[in-house]
Design goal:
Layout (H helix, E strand, L loop, with lengths): L8 E3 L4 H10 L5 E3 L5 H6 L7 E4 L9 E3 L3 E5 L4 H6 L1 H6 L1 H7 L5 H4 L4 H7 L7 H6 L3 E6 L2 E6 L4 E3 L2 E2 L6 E8 L6 E7 L10 E10 L2 E10 L6 E2 L1 H7 L6 H14 L10 H19 L6
Parallel strand pairs: 1-3, 2-3
Antiparallel strand pairs: 4-5, 5-10, 6-7, 6-10, 8-9, 11-12, 12-13, 13-14
Helix pairs in contact: 9-10, 10-11
Length: 291
C-alpha cells in the first residue's frame, strides 16, 4: 500500500506565531512536519495516519544555534547538518556533532531536524543519548507561553511525550559545564554508517582524586524510549572505578534496562551489549587523560 497525497492537507503558515495560533485553534488536529525525513517515509508506505499537516520548514525562529555564557540553545528546527558545522558546539560538546554524523546520509542530515528527532520518539533516536548525557532541557511553547522540562522526563512511553496538543518543541538547552568531564558516545549497528542503532550509549563523568564525583548515562534502545540509566549511575557515583564497581554497574544496568524485541535485534542482546558499552566507558575512566 502506498500513500495518497490527496488524502492529506498541508499548510505552511510561515511563522512561529501563525503555527501556534493554528494549533491553539484546533488542538490535536494538526501534525507539525519539519524536515519530513520520518513522516515522508511513513507516507510513502501508506502508514501516515495524520490527515492535516502544518509545515515548520523555513521558520527562522525555530532554526538557530545560540551561544550564551551558561548554555547553548539549539532551535528545534536546526538540522543535523547545522549541528555538524557549528565549530564552537562541536569543540565544547563533541558528542552532539558525533551523533549528528550518524543521521543517515548527508542529504538526510541537511533535512532532518533535532526537534523532529526528539518528538518522533524512536527508542533508537541517534541524538538522544548525547542529550541525556549532557543533562539537556527542552523548551516547549504554545500561545499560553513557554515551559522548560528536563529532557530525561520528556518521553513518557513508546512514541509518547509530555507535549500538550497545542504545544511545539521550540528549543533544546545544553549547559556549558562539561569541559572537565570525560565524554563517551558509541553506537552499535549492523554496519558503520546509515544504520539504525541496535544499542547506543552516551556518557559524561567527572573524576576527582580517582573518585567519580558526577556521572550521567543516556541510552538508546535499552527501553521503549530514550532513557537515563539512573540505577547504573548510582552504582558508580561517589566510588572509585574498581572491578567491583564495574560489576555493580553492569548488574544495575541489566536490572533496569527494558529493551524491546524487534526486527533489528533481541532484547537480551541489547541488554548485554549495553552492559558491555558501560564497562568500556568505565574502563576508560581508569586511564589518565592526556594533558
Amino acid at each position: 500500500m502506498r500513500g495518497n497525497p490527496e488524502a492529506h492537507e498541508l499548510v505552511a503558515p510561515g511563522s512561529l506565531a501563525a503555527v501556534l495560533a493554528l494549533l491553539a485553534e484546533s488542538p490535536g488536529e494538526w501534525m507539525p512536519i519539519a524536515g519530513g525525513t520520518e513522516l515522508m517515509v511513513a507516507h510513502a508506505a501508506g502508514r501516515l495516519d495524520a490527515k492535516k499537516l502544518v509545515s515548520l520548514w523555513g521558520i527562522a525562529d525555530l532554526r538557530f544555534i545560540e551561544t550564551r555564557p551558561e548554555s547553548f540553545v539549539i532551535g528545534a528546527g536546526t538540522t543535523f547538518g547545522d549541528l555538524r558545522a557549528h565549530a564552537d558546539l562541536a569543540a565544547e560538546l563533541p558528542l552532539i556533532a558525533r551523533a549528528a554524523s550518524w543521521i543517515g546520509a548527508i542529504a538526510n542530515q541537511n533535512r532532518a531536524t533535532i526537534g523532529g528527532n526528539l518528538v518522533n520518539g524512536s527508542p533508537a533516536a541517534d541524538s538522544s543519548p548525547a542529550l541525556l548525557a549532557y543533562d539537556a532541557e527542552v523548551e516547549l511553547i504554545s500561545v499560553r507561553g513557554t515551559r522548560r522540562v528536563a529532557y530525561s522526563g520528556f518521553h513518557t512511553a513508546y512514541k509518547r511525550n509530555v507535549l500538550a496538543p497545542d504545544e511545539l518543541l521550540r528549543a533544546i538547552h545544553l549547559p556549558r559545564r562539561f569541559a572537565r568531564h570525560r565524554q563517551y558516545l558509541r553506537k552499535v549497528g549492523p554496519r558503520r554508517a546509515m544504520a539504525i542503532a541496535k544499542v547506543a550509549l552516551g556518557a559524561t563523568a567527572r573524576v576527582e582524586n580517582g573518585v567519580v564525583s558526577e556521572i550521567r548515562l543516556g541510552a538508546a534502545s535499552l527501553a521503549p524510549f530514550p532513557t537515563r540509566l539512573h540505577r547504573a549511575e548510582a552504582a558508580v557515583q561517589g566510588r572509585r572505578v574498581t572491578g567491583e564497581t564495574i560489576e555493580a554497574a553492569r548488574s544495575a544496568l541489566l536490572a533496569e534496562a527494558r529493551p524491546i524485541d524487534d526486527i533489528r535485534s533481541t532484547a537480551e542482546y541489547r541488554r548485554r551489549v549495553g552492559a558491555n558499552l558501560l564497562q568500556e566507558f568505565l574502563l576508560e575512566l581508569r586511564v589518565e587523560p592526556r594533558p
